Each structure stands twice: as C-alpha cells, then as structure tokens.
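Below is a complete specimen:
___
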Amino acid sequence: MALKFGTSGVRGLVTEMTDQACHRYGLIFARYLLERSPETSTVILGGDHRSSTDQIMAAVALALEDEGLKVENSGKVPTPTIALRAMATKSGAIMVTGSHIPEDRNGIKFYMPWGEILKPDEEAMSKALAELAPTDDSRFDANGMLLKPHSLPEEDQLARDAFIDRYLNFFPKDALEGLRLVVYQHSTVLRELYIEIFESLGAEVIPVGWSDSFVPVDTEAVDAPEQLRAWTLEHQADALISADGDGDRPLLVNEKGDVIRGDILGILASQKLGARGVASPVSCNTSLEACGSFEKVLRSRIGSPFVIAAMEELNATGMEPVVGYEANGGYLTGSSLTLEGCSGELSPLPTRDAVLPILAVLYGAQKQGLSSSQNKLPQRITDGLLLRGVDLERARLLLKGLEDKNSSESKTLAAAFGPPSSTDLTDGTRFTFTSGVILHFRPSGNAPEFRCYTETSPSDHLEDIKKKAEDFLLSYIS
C-alpha cells in the first residue's frame, strides 16, 4: 500500500515510510501550519510503542527544525495529550502512530493549534505534496534513509502531566472509590496513565498483560474476549479497561466479563455527561436515537474529521453541551462540560479520547454495576466483522454492484437476508432489512481491510448473521 492520507494524517507500510518520505510530510505540514497560523513557533511531538516510531519521529522532527520550528518532545504518550497541549499553547502537534493496525505499518497524525486536521486540510496538504519538487538532499542515502541519525530533543512531561491534571482537577478525589479495576496494559501508551488516574481517584487497580512488543488491539474487533472475561472474573473486578496503541480508543469490559462496544459506551457516557447534541457516524448503534436522551442526533460519515464537522454544525445552532463518539469508542467533546459533583468546567477536546468516556460511566456506578446501565438502553446489538488482506479494488466493485438492486450481488444478498427496506450510502453501503437486521459494508480507506458492521435485536442469531455476511463477502472479495 502506498502512503496516503486517511484520518487526520498519513499511514503506510513501515518499508514505505523512509526517513525521506516522512521528512517530506513533515515539511508539508510545517509549511501549511505556518501559512495558516504564522504566529506558531512550536510543534508538540509524540509517538506510540511501535518499533518504527522513534525513527519516524526523528525524521519528522528534522523537517520541523528545517522550517525553523521548535520541537517539544512529549515521548510515548496518548494522542489526545498532544492535542490538548497544542490547543493550550497555540502550537501544532504531530503524533507518530498506526493506531490499531499491525506493527508492519505506522502513521503520522497532524494537529493545528485548534485541533486535528480536517478533510480540507488533508486536500490542501496532499496538493502541496504533489507539487513539492524532488530535492537532492545529501543527508539521505539512495534508499531514502538518513546517513546520520537525527537526535530528538530531550523528553519532557508537560503534555502528559496536563492531560492527567485535566481529569484529576475535574472529578472528585473519591470518584472511583470502592471500585476494583483491571487494566489490560499490553503496549498501549495509556497503560501507565490509566493506573495513575484511576488510583488517584480512589480505585483499586490490578494491571495485567504488559507486553514488550507491540500488540495491535482493535477496539471494534476485539481479539480473545474470553481472556478479557477471564481476567475480569478472576479478580472479581467491577470493570476491565484498556485502549488501542495510541490511547484514543477505549476498551471497556463490564463486571460480568462482557465487552461494552464503543457505540454503547458512547451513549452511556453522553447520558452521564448531560449532552444535548450528539454527533456519531452512521455505523453506530441506533439505540442512540431510540433511547430518547438527546435533543439532537447528527449522523456523519466514518472518521473523526467528519464527527468533528458534525459537532461544529451542532454548535452553530447554539446547542450545548455537544459531544461526539465513534464505533471504536473514541470520545470527542465540542463544548465545555459540567457534571454534578465535579469541579468547574471540562474544556472541549475535539479529538478522540479514551479516558473521559471510561471515567464518565464509572463515576457513580459503584452501586449498580455497568451491566445495569447497559440494560436500561433499548436492546439493539451491534457487532463487527473485520476481513484483512482484502483487495480494495474488488471491494469497491462489490459496493458499486450493490447500488443496483437488479445486480447479481444484490440478488445474492437478498437471497441470504431478505429484501432491504432502506439503503444508506452516507459512507460505504448500509442496508436495513425488513427483518430489522442492519448490515453496513465499508472498505478501509488506508489499509487492506473490509469491515461489516452488524446490528440486530437480541432475538436474532447474531453469529449466524455474521457468518452469512462473511460468506457473502468472501464470495466476492477473497
């Protein structure tokens, strides 16, 4: 796969992310940042625990310094920490991470002083990159690697500490008192911050599963849920908590050992935080509307830039507070929040965060348990199927065929699931069938992956539906 823009940045195979290629993306961002925000002098830099991250950070830092910008090295921290630091100091920010995808890939996410880059920014930077003339830079060898390693500035704790203080200064000191929490650490950059925050708020924390090598945890397609259940039950925990590699997508397991999917977590957190307006992608559980808790729900395309744009649309109506979330559980805030028993206001952070939704649903849940909160929602079950190593061109041809109800693809699908009552082409192809089953087909924009989101009622046989969906997809794209 070639390097290409995806969600607020660029991703690709590590073999393609040469020092020179990363340097070019760093140059383009630096120039765009200075064009849009000439007073900016600093870029906050962070990364995840992939083995390729340090080298990419160094190449990007060199580019920033070439353009006269100061680099503040935050080290290995969650993505929202550098976003928060950038907004507070009117700086740019770059996070080197591939998020949840395998370690043979990595990425670079870009932030302006007011938040992550959006689609118009991606388009402008892509155009500038295409127009960037090749240079004969003697610092790189024929393979695009630096002849002399570039040293990063000494790490500081400013972004990390400000992020922790954000929550310790808002929630009361006993917010989690009486809770026993298991933290699945693996290789997420939140593995130590989670413990520090939860213990500071009164919880008993049991760490498990530390990994020295990178683990690609995908919170939309959770691997080995039986292990998460076993840890939860073994320690008689009120919840198990984890996150993806760069700490912007939460993973939450209730006291019974059941994974709480991200779109359900988003609803529960939004209820607890008193949101009036909620922005969420079209792929998320329809209990969001059915629960009746929110004055306005705005559905968007999939990806944080689209959720942010939807939050901005809600803000323009004067509605507050406004929040957003994705199916992966990443939680965004578009306006300041207050919460009974908490101190002051929590400032908006319009980028994915894996800490706030966890704290929101755990705060005050000691007596009833997380499963009780889930059971109060309209019972619609969402799940996901992820196919890897997919030919994306064949996947696109499949979706094009499904747009025609008389095509062989559409007839095969109808034979398996019955006739669809509606089709939504907001992002991918989403079918609602007369049976009430929902299937949403969507190929990845930046990895050879294809997702099928499913939504059913509790009385449906979810595993049978997923198996039929998988068989259908593999017959066309394998």
DSSP finds 15 helices and 21 strands in the chain. The first helix runs from residue 19 to 36. The two ends are 17 Å apart (CA to CA). Residues 128 and 427 are 27 Å apart (CA to CA).
